[in-house]
Amino acid sequence: MDLVVGLFCTWALDYRPFAGISQERFETSPFANSTFTPPPERLLNVTVGEEFHQIPLDDIRAFIRPSCQVCLDMTSELSDLSVGTVEGEEGWNTVIVRTARGEDLLRLAESKGVLETRAYP
Ligand code: SF4
Q: How far apart are the CA of 78 and the centre of ligand 1, in A?
């Protein structure tokens, strides 16, 4: 059974200038790993060596790829399930069920105890 799980995506960074920030601030490039805190916090968590840092999103916003400014598919509309975090609730994602196949998989995961779900208000 083919199944497509799409991720919410609102933008991506142009790698080279982004790596330049790392080089400029931490004298290394790229970061060992990085994650974004969900809204409303909007911080980039980065680990450089053994050190943890946070960079405000506004400091890197200029490096968002131009294509993202005109993207028409930020919730992966052609997938069976779209998944992402937008509300900033730790440990939870928002899931949009788009097809019967997606619905079947979600219900199977629930029945097996793999996923916990609740209705989105
Ligand atoms: S073009 Fe759209 S899907 Fe691709 S990285 Fe940018 S926002 Fe995400």
A: 14
User: Atom 6 (ligand 1): residue with closest C-alpha?
Assistant: 68
State how many domains the chain has. Answer: 1
CA distances in angstroms from 37 to 60, 70, 99, listed in the order given: 14, 23, 30
At 3-31, the pLDDT tens digits run 999 999 988 888 888 778 778 887 776 66
Which residue type sits at 85? T
Task: Looking at the CA of residue 9, tell me the nearest atom of ligand 1.
Answer: 8
Residue 67 CA, closest ligand 1 atom number:
1
What is the pTM assigned to this prediction? 0.75
Cα separation, 66 vs 9, in Å, equals: 14
* Ligand 1 touching residue 3 (CB < 6 A): no
| 121 occurs within a structural domain | no
Answer whether residue 116 is part of any domain. Answer: no
Residue nearest to atom 4 of ligand 1 (CA): 68
Inside any domain, residue 107 = yes
Residue 66 structural domain: 5-111
